[in-house]
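Build the 3D complex.
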Amino acid sequence: MNAEVTSVWSNLSAFVPLINGTILVGLVGLVTKYRIENRRLSIGENTGLRAEFISEMAALRDEVKGLREENAMLRNEVRSLHGVIDGLRREDLQRAGSVQSVMAEAIGNPLSPAMQQAVDSLKRVPMGKPTE
Amino acid sequence: MTITALPIVLLAILMASAFGKCWGAFKTSAALLLNWAINSSFVSATDIQLPWYFFGSVDYLTAIAILGLGQNRCNIIIAALYAIEMIAHSSFAFSSGGAWPQYRYYYALLFIAWAQTLVTGGWMLYGLAQAWMRRGNGVRGVQPLSESSVRTGLPQ
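Done.
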C-alpha cells in the first residue's frame, strides 16, 4: 500500500514542473501580448503625432508663403513711394532753378531810362563836404 | 561547452555589463549566476547528481524573478527557455531514471543554460555597443562659454 502511495505521489509530483512550465508559458504569453499591444499603441500614437506634425508643417508653409507675398507687395509699395518722393524732389529743384534764372535775368538787364536818370541825378549831388 | 565554463562566462558577462552600464543584462546575468550557485550548492551538499524537483523549483522561481526584473525581449526569451526546461524536468521525473534519461536530461539542462547565457551575452554586447556609440555624444572636453566669448562668439 505504501509503495503504491509513493508511486502515485511521485507520479503526481512529476507533474509539478509541467504545471510550473505552463504557468511560465502563460506569463511569457501575457507579457508578450502586453508588449505587442504597447508597441501597437505607441505606433498609433506616433502615426497621429506624425499626421499632426505634417498638417502643422503645411499650415506653416502656407503662412510663410503668405508672408512672402505680403513682403513682396510692401516692397513694391515702398518702391513706388520712393518714386513719388524722387519726383517731388525733382519738381522742387526745377522750381528753385527757375526762380534763380528769373532773378539772374532781372539782375543782368540794364536799368530802365527813368531809373538811370534817377541814378545819375543822385551822382551829381555833392557828397563828401557837409553843408553849412 | 561544459557546465564548469558556464559560471565563468556568466561572471564575465556580469562584469562586462556592469562596465558598460547595461544594468538589465547585469541583473539577468546575476539571477542566472545565482541560479547556478544555488543548484550547484545543493548538488554538492546532498551528492544527488540530478535533483529534478530542486532544479525545477529553483528554475521556476528564477524565471519568475527574471520576468519581474524587466519585461524586455531578452528576459522573455530566457523565461521561455526556462519553460522549455520545465518539460525536461518533468520528463526526467516521469522516466525510470536510467543512464539514458540522465544523459538526455543533463544535456537538455546544459544546452538550455548555454542558450540563456548566449542570450544574456548578446544583450550585454548590444549594451556595450550602444555605450560605445554614445561615447562621442557627451559634453566631455567642451569648455563652458564665458561672458566675453558669448559676446565675441569666439571660445576663450
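Helices of chain A lie at 2-13, 15-108, 113-124.
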